Amino acid sequence: MMPSAISATRENGITTISIDRAPVNALPPDDWAELHNLVTEASADIDVRAVVIDGGTGRFCAGADIRVLTEPQDEPAMMLTIVAEAAQAIRNCRVPVIAAIDGPSHGGGLELALACDIRIASPAATFSASGVNMGLVASVQSLVHVVGDTRARLMLFTGERFDAKLAEAWSMVTVVDDNPLAAAMAIADTIAKKAPLAIEAAKTALASATEMDGSDHGQLMTELFASLAGTEDHQEAINAFLEKRPRNFTRR
Predict the structure, then answer these.
(1) Is the peptide bond preceding residue 96 cis, with omega within 30 degrees of 0?
(2) CA-to-CA distance for 188 and 240, rounded, in angstroms?
């Protein structure tokens, strides 16, 4: 078994999950499982305010290790399932997850990026729904959700690579920055200083925005707003504003 290429560190309320499997971060199943575990652990840690996923200089994630697909499989869809589970862990994460993308985001790596709440890419980043190039298909729902049906069809039918400029125009990328990790950390730091219960409520509301009708989502927003209005953090925000001092949130 190869040593894991996935590791995590935490500082100032930010968990940084690093992917380091040269040359392009093509990951075997154990790495995808470890990514799932580390995201889940960060979500369960109430001292974590944001998560950054970093693929390193010149990389992000080129999907599944193709060598795995050449081996006999007891479950042919095993690789799809394990990538999907890691992506779902990101979507379910209690706090925002930010991707720092400095290279290929292809196949399962595209699914990984699309699962994140915010995607920061360098001009060197590329994006490809490359399943069709291997005689497979994946990332259909996530692509439609992020870029829309028409653009998703182009990516899924051609398997071609798209650059960061076009990805930004299609809202697949939030921001293009020469130093995506630094930009991602700056955003994570801003998030970490906000009222954590409000950030978590915003992520809950966003996850439901396209799944509920207007009336049901309005009711959810009313419930979230009322709950937040009764928190100590809400009162602290008001007091700090009036007293012109930094806020000290306690997640209560």
Answers:
(1) no
(2) 22
For residues 52 and 188, is the Cβ–Cβ distance under 8 A?
yes
Helix (H, G, I), strand (E, B) or coil at 133: helix
Among candidate residues 197, 205, 203, the one with its CA nearest the CA of residue 233: 197
- Distance from chain centroid for Cα 205: 16
| Burial call 189-205: b when 16+ CB within 10 Å, e when fewer | eebbebbbbbbbbbbee
- Among the listed residues 106, 109, 108, 112, the one whose alpha carbon sits nearest the alpha carbon of residue 89: 112
Residue 212 banded pLDDT, cuts 50, 70, 90: confident
Domain map (residue ranges) of the chain = 6-192, 196-243
CATH of 6-192, one of 3.30.420.10, 3.40.50.300, 3.90.226.10, 3.20.20.70: 3.90.226.10
- Sort strands 50-54 and 97-101 into parallel, antiparallel or unpaired: parallel
pLDDT in tens, 96-133: 999 999 999 999 999 999 999 999 999 999 999 999 99
pLDDT on residue 185: 98
What pTM did the predictor assign? Answer: 0.94
